[in-house]
Design goal:
Number of helices: 9
Number of domains: 2
Strand order of the largest sheet: 6-7-8-3-9-10
Largest sheet: 6 strands, mixed
Shape: globular
Structural class: alpha/beta
CATH architecture of the largest domain: 3-Layer(aba) Sandwich
Distance between the termini: 30 Å
CATH topology of the largest domain: Rossmann fold
Helix content: 25-40%
Order of helices and strands: EEEHEEHEHHHEHEHEEHH
Radius of gyration: 18 Å
CATH superfamily of the largest domain: P-loop containing nucleotide triphosphate hydrolases
CATH class of the largest domain: Alpha Beta
Length: about 240
Amino acid sequence: MIELTNVTKSYSSSSKAVDNISLDIPDGEIFGFIGPNGAGKTTTIKMITGIIKADNGEIKANGIDISKSPLDAKRQFGFVPDSPDMFLRLKGIEYLNFMADIYEVKSEKRMERIKYLSDKFEISRALEDKIESYSHGMRQKIIIIGALIHNPSIWILDEPMTGLDPKSSFILKEMMREHADAGNTVFFSTHVLEVAEKLCDRLAIINNGVILFSGTFQKLKNQFKEDESLENIFLEMTSHE
């Protein structure tokens, strides 16, 4: 479960990147977070994950306040950032062991998780190679595996399908659905509105730091024409802003 209550973040005195938003994302749900570039999506995700601090408001992961107990809160989730270009001089296996060390995953369990996930994403043969030699898609896979190495109950994914081949993208979407159906939480941002429409139980649309809508796709359609696509609704809502 993720809870945001009256969260605000400003980078300057003249404007707010995120303006007093509240979201409640329960267990058992895939929650999509969509908005134009510069809408406040990544800033929101960085506050949820504790990378940056909110100016005001409260953020909780599984009931743990990220500002009061940051380490305990961060143990609750796995995070895939919007860029996989990191730790490039490490071998794939070194990076995964590094992530497993951070989350204190025991030796037997980490071996099991590394084998399962690397086989799933068909990257096992590249684990002994340096990440700098990987393609963008392979880097995305290794970051995803690292985020899931400790089997967290909350998945926070910022544009997770970017660079993935169709098969890997399909596998990840399947895993997201299975994870949510098992009573866990999946929160992800995406620019691919078709994916959000097909995959999400609920979604939020953010623009100019403000939540324009939060709820089911059916609820969103009820506010517009029944036969309109999410793309048309999204463009209409954000253009009005």
